[in-house]
Design a protein that fits this description.
It contains eight helices and two strands, in the order ββαααααααα. By secondary structure, the protein is mostly helical. The chain has two domains: 37 residues, no CATH class; 139 residues, no CATH class. Strands 1-2 form a two-stranded antiparallel ribbon. The longest helix is centred in the C-terminal third of the chain and has 25 residues.
């Protein structure tokens, strides 16, 4: 029997999520991403208990990149960084115009420049060049506006720093995987803790940033 997911390899593993047998490669590479694995799946439990060395290295690299992006941020900046990252990880782009890392970096850069100029007393909205980036920037504005209520120029400076770190992290992820177009977005999907409720802007009483650590 051929694996129904890849259509190439022999299916040898019974997948409770798919309802059919699938190949070991698809089981290993699409687990919890394209396949919604139930918590009692034996292959999932085994992989968590004995992860492959490559998986461990990727987890360490993922967390290292995010921690590097958050280096020396204040607590307020760190909360905002995680709020923005969580929003981006959950953002749903139009089906025919998927979001790429380049769009994330472009949106973050445009918003950062807008906050930088505003903090200097110059009100000018910088807009990204690509439509997907512009849509992401527009979607992020309500989150940033709510987080910055009453913050004035101090928040604008914080937001600019955070958005520049997002832009930097996008560049770092793309350097690690230059042949792919979504390494940072895929990284966010792995390491940023996603809640089930709606996105909320960070506030002064919120708990600290949360990551899924290996």
């Amino acid at each position: 029997m051929i694996c129904p997911l890849c259509g190439q390899r022999t299916a040898r593993r019974a997948c409770p999520a798919v309802g059919h047998q699938i190949c070991a490669v698809c089981c290993g590479t699409k687990r919890l991403t394209l396949i919604n694995c139930p918590s009692d799946c034996g292959y999932l439990a085994s992989a968590r208990e004995h992860p492959a060395a490559a998986v461990v290295r990727k987890r360490q690299r993922d967390v290292g990149l995010v921690v590097h992006a958050m280096r020396d941020l204040s607590q307020r900046q760190a909360r905002l960084f995680l709020a923005v990252s969580r929003f981006i990880a959950r953002y749903q782009a139009p089906e025919l115009q998927p979001l790429l890392d380049a769009d994330v970096g472009e949106a973050a850069a445009a918003l950062a420049v807008t906050f930088e100029t505003s903090a200097r007393g110059v009100i000018y909205e910088h807009r990204p060049a690509s439509l997907p980036a512009e849509r992401l920037a527009a979607a992020l504005k309500p989150l940033l506006a709510e987080a910055g209520q009453g913050g004035g120029s101090a928040f604008e400076r914080d937001a600019a720093v955070v958005l520049r770190r997002v832009e930097e992290a996008v560049g770092g992820a793309r350097l690690l995987e230059p042949d792919t177009q979504r390494p940072y977005l895929e990284l966010l999907g792995r390491v940023v803790k996603k809640g089930e409720g709606p996105d909320e802007a960070p506030d002064a009483g919120a708990e600290g940033p949360r990551l899924i650590l290996p």
